[in-house]
Each structure stands twice: as structure tokens, then as C-alpha cells.
């Protein structure tokens, strides 16, 4: 890339990285936006509606993802990661490793014929829908994906796993524009950039993790016990049930939400509060009450943290709609016939109770991205004790390395408004450093 105009690298294209990239691009900076997944959008793309306004998540996000793809100052690279970063005077040389999509970005017209024709159509569990829907070995993760170019999943595709797909790849036969290329190889690009922003977001706590999971919650063995992110996919019109809240094909009549699963609990490796999950459960209780009139929605909490603008009012709205808030610590969840039973200790009045219900939603906490330590080593950043990237206490956008900045939930759990603000703050700090003002 030419360095005549200031240039920056943004790693991770969730809502925070997109915001940072667009702010920089609007200021005339040439931005390379590198995303590990097949599409940009991050976790917000998996979310149905957003608290406290219940705006449709993809309606808010899609204009931003489309703008990022079409902005003349943004170059988007997907299936890509930062694998090296070295200082070269006042700038950096960044090494980007790009995995093949096996589909030509220029040729593919996103018609979907390959996906329909794929020998594995309907047999591959959807990663985007968290294992709750079935897809093909070639496709896009969700309908509004950016880029809309299809991509082959190498861990599933028969051709890529075994070098053979029946008598020949049906996907390639179905593609009228000859876009599929199984000979595409991984490649490495080296770019010179003036500033780097890491915006790699978070992973969700896995209650079934073999080391730090909570086996007493029966997650994974019981299809009636799901995580909050799975609830988002069930509730979403583009999800596996087209937005219908169904468990085993039937609408639940009683839903119990359990807070702080993998948060504020040292036995699971996280002493911190994940900040968003109280509001997420309140939102999901409201969505359930609106979709399923007469449903019982009970939230078992340690204490409700509704900290943001309009959040307390949203909690009151949820209660007015019928959401029941109970202080309780669940000790066990088990199946009983078609029901699921939550054994809970009432931490306000004392005593233990068994609550029968049809669906349990675990408010799984936010965790550092897997691989954060490796990325921190590459970018010369520090990782805090909680596993998130260290940021300046007075200047959360300022990474501790010169010219390297942190945006969004990779610096610690945060909601979408804070992630957007943090993306803008990181862009501002990067701009100061590029222009040599403000001591960046
Ligand atoms: C169930 C649930 C519901 C939620 N609902 C709401 C809500 O209603 N309202 C609200 O305000 N907040 C909500 N949140 C919080 C919201 O998800 C986060 O605030 C937001 O996603 C943070 O954005 P981000 O860009 O920092 O991270 P992410 O959304 O995680 O995006 C990070 C991006 O970086 C990419 N990436 C990761 N590692 C690499 C790498 N090494 N190289 C390149 N790319 C990489 C990822 O693929 C991803 O695209 C919810 C959270 C959960 C768990
Ligand atoms: S090669 Fe076969 S398995 Fe792979 S995407 Fe094409 S049809 Fe599906
Ligand atoms: S790869 Fe070919 S068949 Fe598949 S979506 Fe693209 S153009 Fe259509």
C-alpha cells in the first residue's frame, strides 16, 4: 500500500472495529480492515434486537457494514489475521495471513446455487446459529453478510477434506460463473501502516467447558438449556426457527433466565461482572413476553446491574410486562420428563425451591477472545489478569504500546453503545498519533 496518505490497520470488524475504520476513513486515512470470519459485523450480527430500544440489530448494523465495504478509503480483507507486526521507523510493517475462501470474490454473484447443490446441504451444523440450524459446506453465514461472496468451510467440505466429492463437486457444477476454485491457497501480505487498532471482541463463556464449566447446569446434555446467544438466534427472523421461540418444536410456557453464568464467579475463572448480561436477559424476557402471550418469564439474579441510559426504565418496563425478578442462586438443573427443573436457593428469604419450566436460558458471560495472548505478543500489548487487553485507565482507547490502540470488547466487557464510542475514541487516538499531535 502507498504511504502517501496516512494509513491504519484495524483488526476485527465487529461494531467497534467498523466504527473505528469508518471514522478514520472519513478523516482521509487509508484503512485496511482485517476480519477473521467470513463476514464483518461481529456478535451484533448474531443479535436479534438491541436493548433498551429493541431496535432490529441488523437494521442498525447493515448500513454500517455496507458502508465499510463500499468506502473508497477502506480495504476489507476477510478470513484474515494479523500474524506479525514490526516497527519500521515511525510506521509498522504488518503481516496479514489470508486463508482461502475457495470462491472468487470478483466472480461470485451470490446466487446461492452452489449451496443448494452441495452434497452436504442441510447436513452441516451452522456455526453462526450456534449448532441450532443446518447449512451446507459452502455458503454465507447470514443473509446480510458482507462481503456477500460465498465461502467453503474447509472443515466440512468433502473435496477439501478427502480430495474428492462424489463423482465431482456439485457446487462447482451448479456455479454458472465458474467462481469456485479448490486450488486457492493461503497467502501472506505485508502492509506498511502508521497505526494499528485491535478490535477483536469477546468469546462467550462455555458452561460445558471441561475445565471451568458448570456441569451442574446440564448445558449441552439438555436441549432445554441454552445460552443467551442461542436465544438471540432463536428469536431472530434469520435464525433457525425464523424467529419463533420453539423448544423441540413447541412454544415454551415457562422460561427461567439464570444470571452470572461464568461471571462474578472465581471458580469459573472470572471474578468480574460481564456488564451486559443483566440487560440481555431483561431484553430477552421482554421479547419472550411479546412473542408468547401468557408466558412466565423469571430471572434468577445475584443483583441486577442496569447501569446505562434508559436501562433502569427498561427494567421497570420488563417488570410491568410481567417479568419476575427473583434473587436466587441455582445449584442444579435436571431433566424430568418433558420439563426441566431448576433447584434454586432463595438468597433473599432463604430456603431451597425446585422450579419446573420448559426452557432455561443461561446468561453466559463475556470472555477474552481465544488467541488474545498471541495477538497481544504480536502487537506488543499487555494482557490484564482477566485476559482482556490492558488499556490506559484514564484513556481506555490508548493501548499501552505506541501507535497501537484498543477498541471495543477486546479491552473488557461492554455493550454496543460503549463499543461504538470506544471505536470512535480509538480512531481519534490513532489519528492524533498519525498526525503527530497529542502525544499519541
Ligand atoms: C447474547 C448477547 C446479546 C447482546 N445484546 C446486546 C444488546 O441488545 N445491546 C447491546 O448494547 N449489547 C448487546 N450485547 C453486547 C454486544 O454483543 C457487544 O457490545 C458488541 O458485540 C461488542 O462489539 P465488538 O466489536 O467489540 O466485538 P465483536 O462483536 O466480538 O466483534 C469482534 C470482531 O473481531 C473478529 N476477530 C476476532 N479475533 C480476530 C482476529 N484475531 N483477527 C481478525 N478478526 C478477529 C471477530 O470475528 C468479530 O467479527 C449482547 C451480548 C450478548 C452475549
Ligand atoms: S465440494 Fe462437495 S462438499 Fe464441498 S462444497 Fe462442493 S458439493 Fe459441498
Ligand atoms: S460460488 Fe457460484 S453458485 Fe455459489 S453463490 Fe457464488 S456465483 Fe452462485
CATH homology group of the largest domain: FAD/NAD(P)-binding domain
Name of the CATH architecture of the largest domain: 3-Layer(bba) Sandwich
Q: Which parts are unreliable, with pLDDT below 50 for 5 consecutive residues or more?
A: none
Q: How many strands in all? A: 23
At the first level of CATH, what is the class of the largest domain?
Alpha Beta
Mean pLDDT over the full residue set: 95
Rg = 23 Å
Largest sheet: 7 strands, mixed
Task: Give, in spatial order, the strands making up the sheet with the most strands.
Answer: 15-21-16-17-18-19-20
Report what the structure shows.
The protein is an alpha/beta fold and 440 residues long. The chain has 3 domains: 7-99 and 186-201 and 369-435, 3-Layer(bba) Sandwich (FAD/NAD(P)-binding domain), CATH 3.50.50.60; 113-174, no CATH class; 205-366, FAD/NAD(P)-binding domain (3-Layer(bba) Sandwich), CATH 3.50.50. It contains 10 helices and 23 strands. It has helices at 15-26, 57-70, 113-117, 158-162, 170-174, 228-235, 277-291, 311-321, 372-379, 416-435; strands spanning 7-11, 30-34, 49-50, 55-56, 74-77, 80-88, 91-98, 124-125, 134-135, 138-139, 151-152, 187-193, 195-198, 202-204, 225-227, 254-261, 296-301, 324-336, 339-346, 352-357, 359-364, 366-368, 404-406. Strands 15-21-16-17-18-19-20 form a 7-stranded mixed sheet. The protein is globular. The mean pLDDT is 95. It binds flavin-adenine dinucleotide and iron/sulfur cluster (2 copies).
Amino acid at each position: 500500500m502507498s504511504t502517501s496518505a496516512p494509513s491504519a490497520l484495524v483488526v476485527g470488524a465487529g461494531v467497534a472495529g467498523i466504527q473505528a475504520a469508518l471514522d478514520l476513513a472519513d478523516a482521509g486515512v487509508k484503512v485496511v480492515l482485517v476480519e477473521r470470519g467470513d463476514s464483518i459485523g461481529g456478535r451484533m450480527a448474531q443479535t436479534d434486537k438491541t436493548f433498551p430500544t429493541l431496535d432490529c440489530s441488523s437494521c442498525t448494523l447493515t448500513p454500517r457494514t455496507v458502508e465499510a465495504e463500499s468506502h473508497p478509503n477502506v480495504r476489507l480483507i476477510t478470513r484474515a489475521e494479523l500474524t506479525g507486526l514490526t516497527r519500521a521507523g515511525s510506521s509498522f510493517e504488518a503481516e496479514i495471513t489470508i486463508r482461502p475462501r475457495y470462491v472468487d470474490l470478483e466472480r461470485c454473484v451470490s446466487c446461492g446455487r452452489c449451496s443448494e447443490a452441495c452434497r452436504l446441504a442441510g447436513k452441516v451444523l451452522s456455526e453462526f446459529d450456534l449448532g441450532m440450524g443446518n447449512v451446507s459446506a459452502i455458503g454465507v453465514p447470514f443473509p446480510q453478510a458482507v462481503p456477500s461472496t460465498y465461502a467453503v468451510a474447509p472443515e466440512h467440505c468433502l473435496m477439501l477434506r478427502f480430495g474428492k466429492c462424489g463423482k465431482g463437486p456439485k457446487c462447482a457444477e451448479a456455479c454458472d460463473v465458474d467462481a469456485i476454485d479448490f486450488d486457492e491457497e493461503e497467502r501472506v501480505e505485508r502492509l506498511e501502516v502508521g497505526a494499528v487498532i485491535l478490535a477483536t471482541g469477546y468469546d462467550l463463556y462455555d458452561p460445558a467447558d471441561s475445565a471451568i464449566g458448570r456441569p451442574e447446569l446440564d448445558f449441552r446434555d439438555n436441549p432445554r438449556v441454552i445460552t443467551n446467544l442461542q436465544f438471540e438466534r432463536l428469536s431472530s427472523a434469520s435464525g433457525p426457527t425464523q424467529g419463533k421461540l420453539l423448544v423441540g418444536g413447541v412454544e415454551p410456557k415457562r422460561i427461567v433466565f439464570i444470571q452470572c453464568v461464568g461471571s462474578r464467579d472465581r471458580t469459573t475463572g472470572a471474578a468480574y461482572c460481564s456488564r451486559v448480561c443483566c440487560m440481555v436477559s431483561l431484553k430477552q424476557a421482554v421479547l419472550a413476553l411479546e412473542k408468547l402471550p401468557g408466558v412466565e418469564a423469571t430471572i434468577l439474579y445475584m443483583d441486577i446491574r442496569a447501569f446505562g441510559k434508559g436501562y433502569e426504565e427498561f427494567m421497570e418496563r420488563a417488570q410491568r410486562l410481567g417479568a419476575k425478578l427473583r434473587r436466587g442462586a441455582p445449584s442444579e438443573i435436571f431433566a424430568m420428563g418433558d420439563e426441566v427443573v431448576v433447584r434454586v436457593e432463595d438468597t433473599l428469604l432463604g430456603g431451597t425451591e425446585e422450579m419446573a419450566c420448559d426452557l432455561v436460558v443461561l446468561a453466559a458471560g463475556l470472555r477474552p477472545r481465544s488467541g488474545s495472548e498471541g495477538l497481544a505478543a504480536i502487537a506488543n500489548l499487555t494482557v490484564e489478569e482477566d485476559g482482556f487487553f490492558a488499556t490506559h485507565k484514564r484513556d481506555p482507547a490508548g493501548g499501552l504500546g505506541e501507535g497501537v490502540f484498543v477498541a471495543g470488547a477486546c479491552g473488557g466487557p461492554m455493550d454496543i453503545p460503549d463499543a461504538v464510542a470506544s471505536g470512535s475514541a480509538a480512531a481519534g487516538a490513532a489519528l492524533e498519533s498519525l498526525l503527530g499531535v497529542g502525544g499519541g
